[in-house]
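STRUCTURE:
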């Protein structure tokens, strides 16, 4: 059974940092792009970041550019999201995704194009 399991969420004050991890099991994603989305009660699901299979290309939503960094360790089948200078508007459930459709463009910002999703981890930023 293929699973993506996120961890590292929590509650921080504005300006703080968190590092999210997403560990994949059941198969390797070493040849697949992976990424992060987020969902808050008052907003639609939002693309956050994507990383290519070898980490050579990364792409960020404008709302997180310069503050968040996506990375991966294929030996550990894990993708990370380093979140710095957090803002209250970053409060959301963060989801890890993997394997966009074979015909997906770069970047793939449509969530339905990804075959695998994690269960999500809550990030809460207080002002």
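SEQUENCE:
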């Amino acid at each position: 059974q293929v699973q993506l399991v996120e961890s590292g969420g929590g509650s921080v004050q504005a300006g703080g940092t968190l590092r999210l991890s997403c560990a994949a099991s059941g198969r390797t994603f070493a040849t697949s792009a992976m990424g992060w989305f987020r969902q808050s009660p008052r907003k639609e699901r939002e693309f956050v970041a994507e990383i290519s299979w070898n980490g050579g290309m990364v792409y960020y939503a404008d709302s997180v550019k310069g503050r968040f960094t996506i990375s991966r360790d294929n030996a550990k089948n894990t993708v990370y999201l380093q979140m710095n200078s957090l803002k209250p508007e970053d409060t959301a459930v963060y989801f890890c995704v993997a394997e966009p459709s074979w015909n997906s463009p770069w970047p793939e910002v449509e969530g339905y194009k990804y075959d695998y999703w994690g269960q999500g981890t809550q990030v809460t930023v207080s002002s």
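REMARK: The longest strand covers residues 92-100.
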